[in-house]
Design a protein that fits this description.
The chain folds into 2 domains: 166 residues, no CATH class; 166 residues. It is of the alpha+beta class. It contains 10 helices and 6 strands; from the N terminus they run αββαββαββααααααα. Helices cover 52% and strands 7% of the residues. The strands form 2 sheets. Strands 1-2-6-5 form a 4-stranded antiparallel beta sheet. A two-stranded antiparallel ribbon has the order 3-4.
Length: 334
Amino acid sequence: MFDDLIRGIERLSNEGVDVPVQTDEKGYIDKQCPAENCEFIFKVNKEDWSQIFKDEAVWCPMCRYEAPADQWFTIAQAEHARSEALQVVKGTIHNALREGAQKFNRRQPRGGFVSISMKVTGGPQRTQTVPAKAATLMQLEIQCEECLSRFAVIGSAYFCPACGHNSVNRTFSDSLRKIRVKKENVELVRKALCEGVGIDDAVVTCRSLIETCISDGVVAFQKYCEGMYAQFGESPFNAFQRLDQANELWKNVLKRGFENWISDDELKSLEVLYQKRHLLAHNEGIVDDRYVMKTGDASYKPGQRIIIAEKDIDFILRCFEKLSEGIKQACNDN
């Protein structure tokens, strides 16, 4: 009477339980970084997952954690798979016992003094798995410039999950986008903080947000220059943190410099913002004699604190976009 049960268990043991994963409307499937301190959720194109991605290694688009392809199921997918596997096992056992009881009862002689029958309560149970549902669509869709795999994220991505490539241009563009988002949402942050913790904390926080935009921009441009310059050799340490030294490095390899891509007035104003960034990073924003001497900025006296306005952020972003485009074009022409 237990033959059906034994066969069902053997089949499960040999074949396992396959729980498919649905794609979203655009043909993407959900993945999640297995690193516990990251767990970044992203999507990959299902065709590319089978044709471009390799079993031995997949990379997290956020932290570049590396692991074999079978470790990238999302937490929700894993929980769904466990639930479905348990349902299939329970259903298989129940249905086998039910079928065995029916066969046993059919074989029993009728009309005897003693009769024996078996009963398994409940009707047939499901033994087919239900696919794991896809999460909502992600707006930022990216195609790797190296391996051409397609993936999608929320917010930002720095690395290709198929090959681990870090796109200098995409990372720089994304850094500038984040600076814009920060600047454009300052007023929302100010209102929320005023209501939540008070006007003093709101003013301090929002001033800090605006000031960090300058530093973030300088660092983003530095990293962009270092990445683009790598094809010509190793650059001196932190050389691209300094505008004049960065300009000379590009002139040496490209025979063109910042003056070719932005005006003299823009370059001079950009140098002033670089010096303001230096004061913020190393002198709490307090003007010293060196700042006045290097910039010729007569609007400040030593001992004052510099002010960063939203228009300064707009200006530095425009300059970096012009310079980065000029550098990219010159590198392609070189």
